[in-house]
Automatic annotation (TrEMBL):
This is Prefoldin subunit 4. One of its GO terms (cellular component) is prefoldin complex. GO terms for biological process: protein folding. Transmembrane segments: none annotated.
Amino acid sequence: MEQIPVLAQDQHNLNEFSVLHSRRAVQELELKDIKSQVEDIVDAKNECELLDEDDGDQIPLIKIGDAFFQVPLDTLNEELEESESRLEKQSEQLESHMETDHSRIQELKNLLYAKFHDQINLD
C-alpha cells in the first residue's frame, strides 16, 4: 500500500481533532455532573413543597460557601430556583459548545478519511 505523505496542514488537522475529541470527553463528564446537580435540586424542591413555615426544625439547611445556614422556606425555594436556572443555562451553553465541536470533529474526520482512507483510525 502506498504511503501518503503527511503535510503540515494534515498534522494541524490531526492535532485539532485530538484536542476537540479530548475536550468532548471532558464536556460529557461536566454535562453529566450538571444534570446530576439539577436532579438533586429538583428533589430538594419537591421535598420543600411538602414543608411549611411551621416545620421550622425540619427545613433543610442551605450551603453558602463552606457554611450551612437555616433560612426561611421562601428564601430556600428562591435559592433553589436560582440554582436550577443557573445550572440549566450552563447546561444549554455546554450542549451548544458540544454541538459546535461535534460538527467540527465530523468535518475533520471527513477531511482526514478522504485523504488517508483506511490508513488512519479516528474512532
